[in-house]
Design brief:
This protein has about 325 residues and is of the alpha/beta class. α8 runs antiparallel to α10. The relative contact order is 0.11. The protein has a seven-stranded mixed beta sheet, covered by helices on one side. The protein has a five-stranded mixed beta sheet with strand order 8-9-10-11-12. The protein is built from ten helices and twelve strands.
Length: about 325
């Protein structure tokens, strides 16, 4: 039977509607699948580390942007930084074992995924900065990168025998073993997509201590970022820095290294050493004058460290 033009038009319209509805259903299903794929991978924390300062160090702190693509995601007493890109992120340090869950939550609170962390770098392999690395590596699948000395400590789950705090013993020092550690040379640049980060070896606090530098940009303005490792002469009771003159010279050179870094914003591994809380308060009060941006920050940090080291050596000489 011959169909008229109206019948054909209705049929075509009906067919097109069916196609559009099918496409909408497919798109909704695909979006739901994508959302499901983005569901957070649960972090499996390791047992909490016990120490006199652990509870204070592990107090939560709301994460915040330092500058550009660099964010503070650590605790009130232990720093961890996240540097982000569309091709993956870099995480600096993991705090205590019990800090890993806070760092994970802080990353997600900022709108990022811990699973997108491709590289974790370490300042030094003590339980208060490396303790959470294993759990954060498990949830992200990230490679961990460190100096050769720190890599050995991470692989064994405690400081190396030449560490000033080694004699405090395994019960005090131990942290979860970290696998898949990439060993770096001094100033060997590591990259994740467009991100480039440089290690600067600063032995003294530990044999493998490392400061990290990179650039962060907002529009056309780029700043030199520094994550400065501890430069404190803290040790087991019987350890004497003065017993190793070459080691003292390396420690002094480490302080000079930090002092001379290109440095617009510096954050130390223990944030109180670079007055993070005070700077946050000043930023909130005077947002147009960012106190984190300070070209003298690394020089001030190094000067204080040099003073403390010489005081320690003078005490040992007595």
């Amino acid at each position: 039977m011959k169909r008229n033009a109206a019948t054909i038009s209705i049929a075509m319209t009906s067919s097109r509607l069916t196609f559009v509805l099918a496409l909408a259903v497919f798109s909704a299903t695909s979006h739901a699948d994508a959302v499901a794929d983005q569901s957070p991978v649960p972090l499996r924390p390791d047992p909490a580390h016990t120490c006199q300062d652990c509870a204070e160090w592990n107090r939560p702190l709301k994460p915040f942007r330092l500058f550009g693509n660099t964010y503070y995601v650590g605790t009130d007493g232990l720093s961890a930084l996240l540097v982000t890109s569309s091709d993956g992120h870099i995480l600096l340090d993991g705090g205590l074992t019990q800090s890993a869950a806070i760092i994970d939550a802080n990353i997600r609170a900022l709108g990022f995924r811990t699973e997108d962390v491709k590289l974790i770098v370490n300042s030094h392999a003590h339980f208060d900065h490396a303790g959470g690395v294993a759990a954060l590596q498990r949830v992200s699948g990230a490679t961990v990168a460190a100096s050769a000395s720190s890599a050995r400590a991470l692989a064994s789950g405690e400081p190396t025998p030449d560490d000033p705090q080694f004699a405090l013993g395994s019960t005090f020092n131990a942290f979860p073993v970290v696998t898949n550690v990439k060993v770096l040379n001094d100033r060997e640049v590591v990259k994740v997509g467009p991100l480039a980060m440089t290690p600067h070896f600063t032995p003294g606090h530990t044999p493998g201590s490392t400061a990290w530098t990179w650039q962060a940009c907002e529009g056309t303005r780029c700043l030199n970022m520094v994550y400065a490792d501890s430069l404190t002469a803290v040790s087991a009771p019987a350890f004497k820095y003065s017993a190793d003159p070459e080691g003292v010279n390396r420690f002094r050179q480490s302080i000079t290294t930090v002092e001379q870094l290109p440095c617009d914003i510096v954050v130390s591994t223990h944030p109180s050493f670079t007055q993070l809380q005070q700077k946050l308060a000043r930023r909130a009060a005077l947002p147009r004058e960012d106190p984190f941006i300070d070209a003298n920050g690394c020089r001030v940090y190094a000067a204080e460290a040099r003073k403390r080291l010489e005081q320690r050596l003078a005490e040992e000489a007595k």
